[in-house]
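Final report, results section. Input specification for complex C-07:
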Amino acid sequence: MKIWLDGELVDESQAKISVFDHGLLYGDGVFEGLRFYNRRIFRLEEHIRRLFDSAKAIVLEIPWTQEEICEFTRETVRANALDDGYVRLVVTRGSGELGLNPYLCPKPSMFIIASTIKLYPEEKYREGMALATCATRRPAPAALMPQVKSLNYLNNIMAKVEAIQAGALEGIMLNEQGYVAECTGDNVFVIRDGKMITPPVSDGALDGITRQVILELAPSLGIEVTEKSVTRYDLFTADEVFLTGSAAEVIPASSLDRRTIGSGSMGPWTEKFIAAFRELTRTTGTPVD
Ligand SMILES: Cc1ncc(COP(=O)(O)O)c(C=O)c1O
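Structure output:
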C-alpha cells in the first residue's frame, strides 16, 4: 500500500510519524474520512473544506491549499489502484517539544491513506442494527466544538465500548442536557408519521457530510425534514430510524436499548433514502483519473 506522507507517496512500511508528534502525544490534530465509488471521490471538496474549518478552529495552519489537498487525495487513490474504498486524511500538529504548547511545533504533518473499510455486516443494511444508549456523553460545545473533527475521539470510543458491551453495534450519544446528539461515528435521523427530524449540530452532532446529503435529498423524496432536538422517547416511538456517515453510509436501526423501533426492520423511507444515496454515490463525485 502507498501512503501519502508530507508531500510524497511512500511505501506503507516507510510511512512513519514521530513519537514527538502532538497528534499522538495529545490528540492535537484533525482528520477526514471519505469514500470513493467507481473511481470517483464522493463529496471531496466538502470534506476538504470541513478539514480546513476544523483546522482553523484549532489554530492549525495547513501548509497546502484545499485544491492541492484534493489533488493529493486523488493521487493517493490512483497510487493504490482501488475502484472503491475509503480515504483517511489526517493533519497533526507535528513534532514539537513535550508539553501542550502547539506553538512549539513548527510544522504540521499530513498523511493520506486510501484503503477499504467495513463498519457493519452487510445484512444489517437490510435488517437494521441494534443500538444502545451510552452513558458517556458528547462533550459540551464549550469543551470541544462538535463540528471539529479532531483527533480526540476517546469519548466516542468509550461510548462505543458501552454499546458493544450492551450487545449493540452502535451507540446513541446524548449531550449534557440529555438530548440525542448523534451516534459514536454516525448522525441519526428519525421518522414518524411521514415526517423526519434530526438533531441540530448545536445539540452536539458533527456536521456530517452524509447528513447534509440526506437533508438535500429529503425534498426530492417528498419528506419534510426538520433539525430539532431529539429525545430517546422520539427514537423509541419512531416508525423508522437510520444512521448516516461516510464510513457507515446509510443504515437502518432496528432497536434501541432492546426496544424495537417501528417494524424492527428496514422501513420504506429508509429504503428510499438508501436507494437515492447509492444512486448519488454511483453517479457523482470527483474523478480519480
Ligand atoms: C462523531 C461522528 N459523527 C458523525 C459522522 C458522520 O459524518 P460524515 O457523514 O461526514 O462522515 C462521523 C463520521 O466521521 C463522526 O465521526
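Residues 33, 156, 182, 185-187, 206, 208-211, 244-246 surround pyridoxal-5'-phosphate (CB under 6 Å). The helical segments are 22-26, 44-57, 66-79, 124-127, 154-165, 209-221, 232-236, 268-283. This concludes the modelling results for the funded period.
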